[in-house]
User: Fold these one by one.
Assistant:
Number 1:
Amino acid sequence: MSGGTRDLIHIGLFAVVYMVLAFLVSNSYYQLIMTIVPVWAVMGLSWNLFSGYSGLISFGHAAFFGLGAYLVALCMIVWELNPWITIPLATVACGAAGLLVGLPTFRLRGHYFALAMLAYPLALLYIFEWLGYQEVALPRKEEAPVLYMQFESQVPYIALALLLLVIALVVTSRLIHCRFGMSLLAIKLDEDAAEAVGINTLAWKLSAIMISAALAGAAGGFYAVVLLVVTPLAVFGMLVSAQALIFAMFGGVGTLWGPVLGAFILVPLSEILYARYAADFPGIQGVIYGIAIIAVILFAPQGIFWKLQVLLKPGRSLVLGATASGMNDRADVGLLKVDAVPEAGVILEAAGLSKAFGGLQATNNLGFQVKTGELLGIIGPNGRVKRPCSTCSMDLYGQIPDQSPFAAMPSWERNQTGSVPWEWRVLFR
Amino acid sequence: MDALQTLENVLQSLVAGLQMGAMYGLMCVGLTIIFGVMRVINFAQGEFMMLGMYFTYFCFSWLGAYAFLDGVWFPFVLALLAGPALFLLGMILHRLLIHTVTGRKASQLEAGGHYAQLVLTLGIALVLQNGGLFIFGSTPVSVSNELSYSAWEWGPMVGDRVSVFVNQAQTISAILALAVVIGFGLLMVKTRLGKSLRAASDNPDAATYMGINVDRAHRIAFGLGIGITAIGGGLMATNASFQPYIGTEYVIIMYAGVVLGGLGSVRGAFLGGMIIGILQQVSAIILPNQLQNTVIFVCFLAIILLRPQGIFGQRDRVA
């Protein structure tokens, strides 16, 4: 069974269970939460589809969310267009907005990209305030409630929210299992290398941000229909972009279910605590989101999806498509020790240092000893042993026992052991 | 007549812009130290500025009651003291949280730790902002005294028509801000500590070989960055009201200034902050108040898209 088919079955099962739950829950407050949660899950998926797979961090997804929300609200007020038309319209419009944002911004990378994305929603926030849309309320349409998505019961809202989520899940699942997902992962790992092997990085990044923005726009449009009031801060504010990112990060970046998991844990948690303690502790939602992501970064930096996977299936090793664990600087296997009381003058001893980059075995079972007063140089082709071995020895500096001759040396003398050579390559060029 | 009125407005905004700009510049310097040395984008910088403001506010309300401390200069002293206080907090936070995703640890994380750093500082920002709402309350406060409401009159000139009022509290704040920046500049250039910070920033690996404890350098840089921004906040508190959410507003201003000057450059950051301050005040003459911040964001976007290395940065710093 291919990954795509398995995903579809999971999505189907999930939708059925969720709908059954929606009918069982009668408390209207919990029903509202059940409507909001899928909306945020879609935001998480939207962020994940772009940033999670391409590695370009967006702090500006609120721009698309807010545009979607205002588009739906204003079309309803000005032209009396119903949300059945305007939500798809918002989806398309935000996709176009994604293209507009992407074209100039993709000239930047890394920190600069993240910073630039931050500015879009905040500039829009003040523009919408200036235009006089401080608070836009959607009018009640008594004569044709269904046409304007204004239902008596909460269940249809839940069904629509779920539909939106299912669409987002199917889109994500389809995309990540084809060339699209692979190309984005390649860009995430090394954009220059991706370009060198013939991936049109700009085209893939543009299509990623367009689809991602379209999903965010749809979520924003539906959000306006559910809450009936749109304010600039609620849809363009920092917290919206932050939430999209938090749910994806908390659940697991670059996974299909991670953002959903994140939203399904964090949104109800913060909503319920907010309802209970808001009077005494007004900022409790933000504090919970803050603590949640700090905890995830410290204890499960890959997100709880992977943590759960490891806990549930202990035999399976953690393989992240994007991390490529062999790519770091450290030796894979080996032992490097500094003797506290040197035996026969040996102060540094290495044994069995091995390093493989994927299938390429760079170093196999290297060992050496350094005696007091001895100079040892390691010579070899670049990217083989010198760096892994010296990175290891750098780690050791923190753990040098006080009695070791190393400890008595000034640190620049310590460094003469095994660490400098790879900088020499500059000289030989 | 109208021309003179315009001249007066422009001069008045320029003076206000220079004053605000000096304080923005100070905050930008704090932010740029952290980026320059650690290569970390700190989203919580605005919140640390907010803490600096509240430090000044609370110390003022607790200690201001004592007669011998009841001078007009007292809030400014407190603003300067916010620096060491937040420096300590920064060192502790680095030890507990930040160092797990930066420096040598960063190379083990996905995407060089970028994700982890952005998210961790965002988490700290959310906790401080909303925790601040709980502890400090949402009522705007300020540390104003008679200086905040008094001004030197400059003029009248051009036939008694034009006179510019120079707010005294803001002027003192601006001078102090400039002094702190110069002091910090000397620290970076003249002292061994400054050299080690610069070395850790230029090439962490090489710095390690030269016997510099890069982790410690990062810790000090983080503390310094936060302390300096907190002083900026404290000085700002003497002439503006604030509440726990103020950080978000300022963090963009800080980033605009820092990027304008070139990420990681101290002199650039100060001048960048200065330019942002002037731009903000002067734009108020022709644009409605709500769009003042949009001007900053648009200018920020324009810089970042057209000249991401900043006005004073070098091309190779980008990417």
Number 2:
Amino acid sequence: MTISQKCAWAQLWIFGALVIAWLMLFIYNGTIFYWQDNTFKMTFYWLCAAAFAALVIMNVSAGILKSHRKEVTDERDRAIFRKASLWATGVSYTVVAALLLALAITYMNGNSETIPVYFPLFIVIIGGVTLLLTQAITALLLYGRKVNYGES
Amino acid sequence: MARARINNRIRRLRFDSGEMTQEELARRVGCTRQTIIALEQGKYVPSIELAFKIARAFGMKLEEVFQYED
């Protein structure tokens, strides 16, 4: 397994752990949103921050390793990640556009022109998470499939 | 449109070159062992540069290592 492949798996594990932690929080307390009490709201945000920190540490460590040992990554890894990034960008843009449209339609139907600032913020976060997750999943799928350097 | 296939004889040539390991070939051409495995399994079509490096590692011409099929 190359370092890029390990990073993609680690990314999935981090997101998996975050989703499980959120689910446990939701099961214990119900939905966690900005109007709820501070303890649970902060637990929700601390989990996000912990996952983000784990992602940053992982990527920085991988970057250092790649720059010091050239044989840990090569053109195939880069070709796979270029292809995975193209897919991930398309998917995340679609998700963000669909959620923004759904939000706009919901508020227009409710005869309200004021959208709480949290909702667009959540949509941006969902877009970022979708981008990283789609990239990791697509990359792992491509590692098992035929890849053509010229097509990426 | 049908995809063109590029086959290679890397596995055969490794054994003919004193049973060269995948690790050794990867080190010589500057890629990972996983890429050599993918090449041998026909799961990766390399760049021209890597193809030339592999052919050179065996002391052969490009078309003696890689074959293009329509």
